[in-house]
Amino acid sequence: MRMTPSEPLLASATAPPIGPLADVENAINAVFDPISNALSSFVFAEITVLGVTFPWIVAWLVIAATIFTVYFRFVQFRQFRLALKIVGGRFTRDDEPGEISHFQALSSAVSGTVGLGNIAGVGVAVTIGGPGATFWMIVAGLLGMCTKFVECTLGVKYREEHPDGTVSGGPMHYLRKGVAERLPGGTGRVVGRILAGGAAVMILFFGVAGGNMFQANQTFAQLRDVTGGDGGPLGGAGAALIFGLVVAALVGAVIIGGITAIGRVTSRLVPSMAVVYVAACLIVIGVNLPQVPAAIGAIFAGAFTGAGVAGGAIGALIVGFQRAAFSNEAGLGSAPIAHSAVRTRHPVTEGYVALLEPFIDTVIVCTMTALTIVIAGTPFWNEARASAAAGGETPDGVLVTSNAFETVLPWFPYVLTVAIVLFALSTMLTWGYYGQKAWTYLFGRSRASERTYQVLYCLFIVVGSVLTLGSVLSFADAVLFLLALFNIVGLYLLAPVVKREVAAYRDKLRSGEVSDLRASDPR
């Protein structure tokens, strides 16, 4: 979903501001530059394994996903069918506590992870890591399913239910309550509050910057580019401002309604954008059907024999894992905020639903993008790979992806624009909710507090449309991944709690206390 400092994703950016706006942007960037550089140098600090260099945070996320997969006995595979039944509403009644259905919770969370990185970031991955990066991207996505299972079960387990029927959940709550339970005496309370407060600050900052400003900025950039650049209808000085005001009005109208309204919108928006994008992928793959076996062979060969550019087989593995970790956010603690609002009395049911999220984001959407690029095999991609292998600049990921589609669909830039707009809008809606929950945790839950946040959030949409603020966005990216450091420590401590929830729910399934509503319906 995001753009990290080392991953150029988009082909164009909003035209640099001039006059007073340029002075404002330069002043803000000057303040954030040293802070951003210092934090990014820590969070994205690189380690070297077998001659391949990669950020340590990727290893932190992937190792956790592997440990949880083993600890929970590959739950993402054993309970995949049950997860599909639960997301279809077959095990949950409408009178259970919560605000939204399992399907709406899943679509809200997916809308926060499926985004520009799925389109552009994958283009970078298969250029640097070769076709083999696709295989390891799938592996990392499958492992990440278990991390999502753990953190979203905890999100529901420790959520707070308010008198008006709304709920608040996420790492702010399960770190504070859960860690206090697991660690003895006052130590647990102090550590839990520190971790929870830090998590809230990180989520709030990224929600306003990366989940909001970046999305608005790059959506306008794509619209401006596809309509003729500087000479087109969106090339004027005021076009970005008007665009920002329109998007702010649309987003504000939805987020004021809370997660119920967001769930209604994303439950329609997410399937629509997925169908549009996956259909385009399938068209390219279908036209190039004779090349499919060779492409699949290249993916497997590159995964194990070193066809990738970045250090052979190990390089393909690292690049694939990095793309998956940066895309599906498993372990970052963001998704449990949306999943916590689900209607259920059994926390583990939403854990099962949440494990579908990395499957959709990484195993399906990212893999479809990668397959399309590999199968199309454009001259541009081959030239970009040769340049990367020779130590040249990393290509703009969106150009790699767009060129692959244009081999079959010359008008694809317009489809890409529609996809980017839908992805960005859904991301802004979901991160608006995430940020609001962090805001109310820090500043109190009242109507005035919520309205203040919502107004500020919408104002930053306008700011993001007009200003690039690269240092602010780099800082926000580092802040979100710093959250994973604290969140996963909490997940390790609370994994036994999740295991007890699994056992309790399985006992209820066996005893018939919880049953398939469709199977037991006398009609």
TrEMBL record:
Main location: membrane
Transmembrane residue ranges: 47-72, 190-214, 234-262, 269-289, 295-319, 352-376, 411-434, 455-473, 479-498
Gene3D superfamilies: Amino acid/polyamine transporter I
Membrane topology: Multi-pass membrane protein
Subcellular location: Cell membrane
Pfam families: Na_Ala_symp (PF01235)
Keywords noted in UniProt: Cell membrane, Membrane, Symport, Transmembrane, Transmembrane helix, Transport
Domain of life: Bacteria
UniProt record similarity statement: Belongs to the alanine or glycine:cation symporter (AGCS) (TC 2.A.25) family.
Protein name: Alanine:cation symporter family protein
